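User: I'll paste a sequence; please echo it back and then give the predicted structure.

Assistant: Echoing your sequence first, then the prediction.
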Amino acid sequence: MTTNNVSKRILRRVPISGFLVRVLVTTLIVGGFMKYFGVSIGALGQGLAYSLVGVSVFITFRILQFPDLTVDGAFPIGGAVCAALILKGTDAELTLLYAFGAGAVTGLITALITVFFRVEGLLSSIIVITGAYTVTLRVMGARSNIPLLGERTILTPYQKEMRSWLIENYGREMRRHSNNLVEIIVFTMVVIIVLLVLNAFMHTELGLMLRASGKNSQVVRSFGVNHHLMTILALMLSNGLSGLAGSLAVQQFGFADVSLGFGIIVRGLAAVLLGEVLLRPHSIGQHILSAAIGMIIFDVSRAWVFAALELPTTDIRLVSALVVLTALAVPNLIDRWREWHKRRVVNRRKEQGQLDVAAKAR
């Protein structure tokens, strides 16, 4: 039996997932893109810190189909709770759970306003994020900024060892990359654990009911499931992830700021769309992973714009807006091009058919 026949039999027995191939190809392209254009690997760390925001937005907008803007409030609240507890001596790892809980409470308030007062979801979330600004200031002790200089974070225990290892093996010029590498490794582990737990939950009976509630609430009610409870659960889970992302971002930046979550919902939407367009996910687990990867791609793209155009950091809002606009516009342009191409093919076939009929008539 030849080597080619053996390879074909192995490939038949072990099917390669198209989604996995797209993930690997995207990873290679992003890596080559960063190396060629000199994009700092710090963009990967920031993308990982914010990646759970993409998952948060996916839960509300795609699964629940609920127009929730509470993410803009849950993110800074989670970061503020994390920073305040670290300053009080709480273990940095434990603050992640508190930040998740703070974000979940923020989502709970939005859900209760929607369910009990029958206020539109969009308006409910606007009300909550308006009040969340004051709550964030209260948590931070009426200060707009809390520095964490000299405080222990989830990154601190590994930074010294990583710096020594890099200098020993690759020289002192690699020292400046040590903190970025620690961020990538630690945040990757946290994100993987969260995504695995979330994927497992979505395949439980409760998770299936939550997913079905977003698809068709009337059918869910016919099975005796309380649709309102599913809404509350989804909003708590979504904004809990946003609060957790806020705590990761705060420990990466080394400070908490009251305006840290400004416009984060738009970035989350862009991440979801980027993941869907580039990776074309099908299962719930693939959608969750795509949303996280989409956020990483977003941050790398933004960092590339700064590196390529040599823009000052004061332009960060404008660059973010342009990257988000591109992420939102490209899928629509692709869909319009596909529709135009289909119409063109149909018209050509009609014209060809008419020509064939005329030729036969002659």
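The radius of gyration is 24 Å. Strands lie at 145-147, 255-257.
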